[in-house]
Amino acid sequence: MKFFYLALVAFLLSGCMGKAPITNRDQILLMSPSEEIALGTQGYAAFLKTAKLSTDRVQVARVRSIGQKIAIAANKPNYKWEFNVVDDKQINAFCMPGGKVVVYTGILDLVKNDDQLATIMSHEVAHALARHGAERMSHQKISSGVQLLGNLILGQTAPQYTNTFNTAYGYGTKYGVMLPYSRSHEYEADEIGVHLMYKAGYNIQEAVNFWKIMKAMKGNAPTEFLSTHPNDDNRILKIAQTIKKIEKK
Ligand SMILES: [Zn+2]
Fold first, then answer.
1. CA of 129 to the centre of ligand 1 (A)
2. What is the whole-number distance in angstroms between the Cα of residue 230 and the centre of ligand 1?
3. pTM (two decimals)
4. Which of the two residues, 11 and 245, has the higher pLDDT score?
């Protein structure tokens, strides 16, 4: 019976394999690119309704010109790129699937030059290119499917263990799968991001300088850039390794 379930799961997943760009990491994606882009476009429209767009023309033009170069480097014909600046002191930025990029004024205040701004934007674009959002949603679907299956089997064989199973399962997926997983996504976005920056003509050494600034900022507002990110020293080390690899080519 166990083998039957495993074979069934393997069969269901076989059509959903993908590969991340640059790193070539295997991925399970239970969502098509067009579904994902539609979700991103919806999410972006909803975000814009509540956001306060910046009226600083110089900064908006700066973000858009850097964005255009990164978009060309990303080479995604099915993306409809948009770049906006939001007037918000949070140290944050994001890119929705489909190429909707938002930079917060809080992070613009921190960068020392265009190369550092390109570091942030490339990192966010890399999350979208590598389809990290779709991957996370796919894993959540799978883990709730496995949990359901576990409950079905336990319900028939040992119902007294159902609660224990659910507690252990929730704990295991949170600390064993989801957290390390988001950390590996961060490293991957850094690696792909540095490649994009390089292709777009930016000074990739500034990626290291930018993350040193972020490291010094630790302890402030919990945002994408401070809380979910991996240990800063490891991250800076890995970025330096990527730069070395690129420069050797
Ligand atoms: Zn990130």
1. 12
2. 9
3. 0.82
4. 245
Q: What is the pLDDT of residues 52-83, one digit of tens each?
A: 999 999 999 999 999 999 999 999 999 999 99
Q: How far out from the chain centre does Cα 41 lie?
A: 16
Between the CA of 123 and the centroid of ligand 1 the distance, in Å, is 6
Q: What's the 172 CA to ligand 1 centre distance in angstroms? A: 23
Residues lining ligand 1 (ion), CB within 5 A?
186, 189
Report the catalytic residues: 124
Angle at which helix 205-217 crosses helix 114-129, to 10 degrees, equals: 90
Q: Which residues of 51-80 are buried (b: 16+ CB within 10 A; e: fewer)?
A: beebeeeebbebbbebbebbbebbebeebe
Amino acid letter at 52? Answer: K
